[in-house]
Design brief:
The chain is α+β, with helices and mostly antiparallel strands. It folds into 2 domains: about 280 residues, Rhopdopsin 7-helix transmembrane proteins (Up-down Bundle); about 120 residues, Heat Shock Protein 90. A hairpin with a 3-residue loop joins strand 8 and strand 9. Helix 5 runs antiparallel to helix 6 and helix 11 runs parallel beside helix 12. The chain is rod-shaped and about 135 Å long. The two termini are about 45 Å apart. Its EC number is 2.7.13.3.
C-alpha cells in the first residue's frame, strides 16, 4: 500500500478515532457485567439437554471468527503492524478450533457420542481452544500496547500473512491429533457431566490471561486503535462466558448454556465492529459521491457557460473577418472602376473571386455547430454559384459533392483551386458545360474533378498555374489531366484525419 494510504489507515485507527466509541464500550461493559452478576446465582441450575446448542454455537463462532480473522489480516496488510497479525491469527485459531470442538463434543453430530476421540477429548479441546485464543489475543494486545511501532517490512507482508494462516492451521491440526490420539494419556477433565479441579484450575488460569488482555486493551492498546478497544469488549464477553460456565459446574447447566451464548456474542463483537466500519465507509463514500457530483455539475455548468462564451466570441471573430473581407472586396471594386484595360479588369475580377472564397469559408464556419468543421458540399455550391454569374452565355456549371467535414486549413486551399479552375473554364469559348465533383474514396482520400466539354485546353492552363500547383502541394495532392471530348482535371487529396 502507498504511504499515503497507510497513513490514512493509521489516522482512522488513531486516538481520535478511538475516543468516540470508548464511552460506548465502557457502557456496554457495565451492562454486560451487571447481566452476568444477575445470572450467577442461577448458573448452577440444570437446564434442558439441547444437543443442537453446540452446532449452533460452533457455526456462529466459526463464521464470525474466520471472517474477522481475514478482515484483521487485510488491515494488517495496510498497516504492517505485528499486533494485527497476531490478532488475525487469534481469530482464525478460534474459528478453526470451533470445528474440532464440534467433532469431539458428544451428541453434537452423532447421538450419544462424538465423531472423534474419547469423551475426555471435548473437554481438552475446549481448554486448548480457550488457552490458544487467550494466549494469542494477549500477545496481540501486548504488542499493540508496548510496541505499537513494531512493523513488518513491506516486502514481507504477504509472506507473513500466509505463514500466519499456515501456522494456525498446523496448530489446530496438532491439537486435533493430541485430543484424538493421545487423550488417554492426559489427566481427566470431566467426571460424568461435572468438571474436575484440574479443569477448573486451568480454566481460571486462562481467565487470568483473558483478564490481563482486557486491562491492556482498555488501558493502553484501545487508545491507539479502536479495534483493540472493541477486542476488550469481546474478551470481556468471553470472560463472562467462562465465569458462568464454571459457576454452572456441568454441561447443560443454565450457566453452561449462557456461557456458550456469551462466547457467541464475544465472537461476533469484532465482526460487527468491521461491519460498522464498512457501513460508515459506505456512508462516507455516498456523501463524497454526492459532493463530487455537485462539484462536477457546478464545474460542468461553468465550462458550458465558458464554452458558450467562447463559441460566441469565435462566431463574432469569424463574422468580423467576413465583414472585413467584404470591405476588401468593396475596395478592390472601387479601385477597378476607373480601369479600362481588359487584362487589368480580369486581374481585379480574379482577385475579387479569391477574396469571396476566403469570406465564404469563414461564413460556412460561422454557421457550423462546433466552429471547427463544416460540410464541404454547400461551400463548393456557394463558390460555383458565384462564379457562374461570370460565365459566358450558354455555359452551365454543375456541382456534385459528398458531405465531408473539413476545417479552414483544408477548405480554403481547396476552394481557391476550384475557383481558379472553374473561372478558367467558364471563360473559354466553346465551353457549354462545366462539372465540379468532390467524391470521398476508400480510406481517408478524396478526389476533386473539374471537367468541361470545350475544345480549348484549360488543363494546360491549370498545369502551368503556379497558384493551383502550390495549393495542391499544400494539401498533399496530385494533379492529373485527361482529354476525352473536353478536358478533365483530377486532383487526388488526402482528407485530414480530424475530418
Amino acid at each position: 500500500m502507498p504511504a499515503a494510504d497507510a497513513a490514512s489507515v493509521e489516522t482512522m485507527a488513531g486516538p481520535a478515532a478511538a475516543g468516540a466509541p470508548r464511552r460506548l464500550v465502557l457502557a456496554l461493559l457495565g451492562l454486560y457485567g451487571a447481566a452476568a452478576l444477575a445470572a450467577l446465582p442461577f448458573a448452577a441450575r440444570p437446564g434442558p439437554e439441547v444437543t443442537a446448542i453446540t452446532p449452533l454455537f460452533v457455526a456462529t463462532v466459526l463464521i464470525t471468527e474466520v471472517a474477522t480473522g481475514f478482515l484483521v489480516l487485510v488491515r494488517f496488510e495496510a498497516t504492517r503492524r505485528w499486533s494485527l497479525l497476531l490478532l488475525g491469527a487469534a481469530c482464525l485459531f478460534a474459528g478453526l478450533m470451533a470445528v474440532l470442538h464440534l467433532l469431539t463434543f458428544p451428541g453434537a453430530i452423532l447421538p450419544g457420542r462424538s465423531m472423534l476421540g474419547m469423551p475426555q477429548a471435548a473437554a481438552w479441546t475446549f481448554l486448548l481452544w480457550m488457552g490458544g485464543y487467550a494466549g494469542l489475543a494477549l500477545a496481540a494486545v501486548a504488542a499493540a500496547a508496548f510496541a505499537p511501532g513494531w512493523r513488518v517490512a513491506p516486502a514481507q507482508v504477504r509472506r507473513h500473512g500466509l505463514w500466519a494462516v499456515a501456522l494456525v492451521a498446523g496448530l489446530v491440526l496438532g491439537c486435533g491429533l493430541l485430543v484424538t490420539g493421545r487423550v488417554a494419556a492426559l489427566p481427566p477433565l470431566m467426571l460424568g457431566q461435572a468438571w474436575t479441579p484440574l479443569n477448573a484450575g486451568m480454566t481460571y488460569g486462562e481467565m487470568v490471561a483473558v483478564a490481563a488482555a482486557i486491562l491492556l486493551s482498555l488501558a493502553g492498546a484501545g487508545r491507539r486503535d479502536p479495534i483493540f478497544l472493541w477486542l476488550g469488549l469481546a474478551l470481556s464477553a468471553l470472560l463472562v462466558a467462562n465465569l458462568l460456565s464454571l459457576a454452572g459446574g456441568a454441561r447443560y447447566s443454565l450457566g453452561w448454556s449462557l456461557g456458550r451464548l456469551s462466547w457467541a456474542v464475544s465472537a461476533s463483537v469484532l465482526f460487527l465492529f468491521f461491519m460498522g466500519q464498512f457501513l460508515r465507509q459506505q456512508q462516507a463514500l455516498a456523501r463524497a459521491k454526492a459532493t463530487l457530483e455537485e462539484r462536477v455539475a457546478a464545474r460542468t455548468a461553468e465550462l458550458t457557460q465558458a464554452l458558450g462564451q467562447r463559441d460566441l466570441l469565435l462566431r463574432e471573430v469569424y463574422h468580423r473577418v467576413e465583414n472585413n473581407l467584404q470591405i476588401v472586396d468593396s475596395l478592390i471594386h472601387a479601385e477597378a472602376r476607373p480601369v479600362t484595360d481588359p487584362a487589368a479588369l480580369e486581374g481585379f475580377a480574379r482577385l475579387r473571386q479569391r477574396v469571396f472564397t476566403l469570406g465564404q469559408a469563414h461564413q460556412q464556419l460561422m454557421r457550423s455547430a462546433d466552429l471547427r468543421y463544416f460540410d464541404i458540399a454547400p461551400f463548393l455550391e456557394e463558390l460555383v454559384a458565384e462564379i457562374r454569374r461570370a460565365a459566358l452565355p450558354g455555359c452551365t456549371v454543375e456541382v456534385l459533392a459528398d458531405p465531408v467535414a473539413v476545417d479552414l486549413d483544408f477548405a480554403i486551399p481547396l476552394g481557391l483551386i476550384v475557383t481558379e479552375l472553374v473561372a478558367q473554364a467558364v471563360r473559354q469559348e466553346g465551353v457549354g458545360r462545366v462539372a465540379v465533383a468532390f467524391r470521398r474514396e476508400a480510406g481517408d482520400a478524396a478526389r476533386l474533378t473539374v471537367s468541361d466539354d470545350g475544345p480549348a485546353a484549360p488543363g494546360d492552363l491549370a498545369a502551368g498555374n503556379r497558384l493551383i500547383a502550390g495549393l495542391t502541394r499544400q494539401l498533399g495532392g496530385r494533379i492529373g489531366i485527361t482529354r476525352e471530348g473536353g478536358t478533365r482535371i483530377g486532383i487526388d487529396l488526402p482528407i485530414p484525419e480530424a475530418a
